[in-house]
Amino acid sequence: MPDDFLLRVGLAAAGIAVVSGPLGCFVLWRRMVFFGDTISHAALLGVALALALSLPVLLGVLLAATGVSTLILLSGDRFHHTDTLLGVAAHSALAMGLVAVSLPGGGNVDLMRYLIGDILAVDWRDLAVIWSGVLICGGVLIWRWQGLLMSSLDREMALAHGRNPRREGLLFTIALAVLVAVAIKVVGALLITALLIIPAATGRLLAASPERMAVLAAATGAGSALLGLSGSFRFDTPAGPSIVVAAVVLLVVAGLLRRILPIE
Amino acid sequence: MNRALITVSDLSLYHGRRLVLERVNLAIQPGEIVTIVGPNGSGKTSLLKCLIGAEPPSAGSVRRKPGLKVGYVPQKLHLDPAFPINAARFLRLAGASRSRRTEIVEMLGIGGIMNHQMAALSGGQLQRLLLAHALIGKPELLVLDEAAQGLDQPSVAAFYQRIEHVRQELGCAILMVSHDLHVVMSASDRVVCLNGHVCCEGTPTVVSEAPEYRRLFGFGTEGALALYRHTHDHRHDHGDTPDHADAG
Predict the structure, then answer these.
(1) Band of the pLDDT at A103, cuts 50, 70, 90?
(2) What's phi and psi for A121, nearest 5 deg?
(3) Among A161, A207, A264, beta carbon nearest to B94
(4) What is the value of pTM for the model shown?
């Protein structure tokens, strides 16, 4: 096993986790866990459409993920709670994706690869794509940090302070879509949400400020990526699920730590 | 010569096909205290949202003085338990210099809670913190949405006194909304009764010395509360009850 293979895989997984942690904090604060699921299901539809139209998969995923999420942000009526709309969007996107690939000319690809991901197939080009996405998402988070915090706390208060919560929300959604698009090949659509919410939940247990929670989420995310990968090599288990299992183990450890240590 | 901070002209607002606000006219002058009262569902919160620009009106206009600084105190903060943030960090979100923050913290006497997590604050502490947050940016207009809701009467009186003190200290105009139709802040320069449209407008009657007042409100409110007498000059088409009959 050549050394640069391990380096590639490690850099890919850690890169995704470093940015999914802080993004996941906002997913928790804005109560958007189900939204993460919807974006990743929409991403699968994007994969199917891209393959059917012979477009780059990354482009298909980006378009589908941003398209579906913007549609949800803009739609909404007085008869259905957002949860309902998200459920409709998530499952119809998944179903349409599955139908699309099975049609003649649909390429008949193995969508399973995109459901659970295949990190071992990551090449240098993929790595460049992943880290570009990581830098974009990280940049958006740092650039909009105050405004995002404020509009996650209270929309009207943010408005009165001259912020634009709708724009912040849209930027955040786009960052989520970018993350999903670059991560789908590595961790798969089914487990992306896990990388968003589990490290963030771990960070919450040990943090007293939003900044510390975000940093801890990034750190535990990267930690679980490396732990999960080494476990996956040792026990010959699938990489994506192993990373998620490692993240859960860290969450439990944090929960135990919290009982022992005096944390505010 | 229009010095008004905000001028609302013939504002109407629809939610779907439901008319929430109908041809509302309102102007807020620098330094004045205006209380908007109205029963639940009378469109008070919607009007506030139009004023701070959170909701575009369906018809009519909201003109803000260019560069108007607004401080907003929400009815309550839907703080998710997953949000770790202490009072000091929350105030830093409002920006401004450290000395300005210290000034406001001292004025409101909340120095002792700066290291507390927001989720652990009592209702009164949280409300003072939200007020501090709104005041840090030196607003010309302070908007309070049902800020006294959920407080007992002595606390409401104390809160109103604090607001009056804020106006004396900072000279900002204050717009507050309350669902209590009859008991308002005595320092209000004007009371506007809203029920989809402006029903009536007037000044509060200060009756703090009358024995009836003592019986109603008990002691210790030190004249912070006053009664508002509604003057019904019209009846609604859809029934034979006056505007305020169902509002208790």
Answers:
(1) confident
(2) -90, 5
(3) A161
(4) 0.83
